[in-house]
TrEMBL record:
This is NADPH--hemoprotein reductase. It comes from Hucho hucho (huchen). The keyword Flavoprotein applies. One of its GO terms (molecular function) is NADPH-hemoprotein reductase activity. It is an enzyme of class 1 (oxidoreductase). SUPFAM superfamilies: Ferredoxin reductase-like, C-terminal NADP-linked domain. Residues 1-72 form the Oxidoreductase FAD/NAD(P)-binding domain. Its EC number is 1.6.2.4. InterPro entries: FNR_nucleotide-bd (IPR039261), OxRdtase_FAD/NAD-bd (IPR001433). Keywords: Flavoprotein. Coiled coil: none annotated. GO terms for cellular component: cytosol. GO terms for biological process: response to hormone.
Length: 78
C-alpha cells in the first residue's frame, strides 16, 4: 500500500480488516505500507494506530518519511 498524505485514508480500512481477520485466526498475506507527510508532529495523524499495528504484526513493515522535518526534503523513494 502506498498512501502519502490523505492517501492513507482507504488503507486504514484495509489494515483494520486484516487485523480483524487475524483475530479470527485467518491467514493473511504480508501487509506493507509506505506513507509520509510533511511533519511528524503535525500531520502523522495515525501514528499510534500504525505503530500498534506493526507491533502486533498486523502490518508486516511500516515505512514512513517526513518530508519537511529537516532542511533537505526527504521522501521514501528518492
Ligand atoms: N496547512 C497545512 O499545514 C497543511 C498541512 C498538510 C497538508 N495541507 C494541505 O492539505 C491537502 C492534502 O494534503 P495531503 O496531506 O494529502 O498531502 P501533502 O501534505 O501535500 O503531501 C503529503 C506528503 O507527500 C509528499 N508528496 C507530495 N507530492 C509528492 C510526490 N509527487 N511524490 C512524493 N511525495 C510527494 C509531500 O511532500 P512535500 O513536503 O514535498 O509536500 C508530503 O510529505 C493539500 O492541499 C495540502 O496543501 C495543508
Amino acid at each position: 500500500m502506498v498512501g502519502p498524505g490523505t492517501g492513507i485514508a482507504p488503507f486504514m480500512g484495509f489494515i483494520q480488516e486484516r487485523g480483524w481477520l487475524k483475530e479470527q485466526g485467518k491467514e493473511v498475506g504480508e501487509t506493507v505500507l509506505y506513507c509520509g507527510c510533511r511533519h511528524k508532529n503535525e500531520d502523522y495523524l495515525y501514528q499510534e494506530e500504525l505503530e500498534e499495528a506493526e507491533k502486533t504484526g498486523v502490518i508486516t513493515k511500516l515505512n514512513v518519511a517526513f518530508s519537511r522535518d529537516q532542511e533537505q526534503k526527504v521522501y521514501l523513494f528518492y
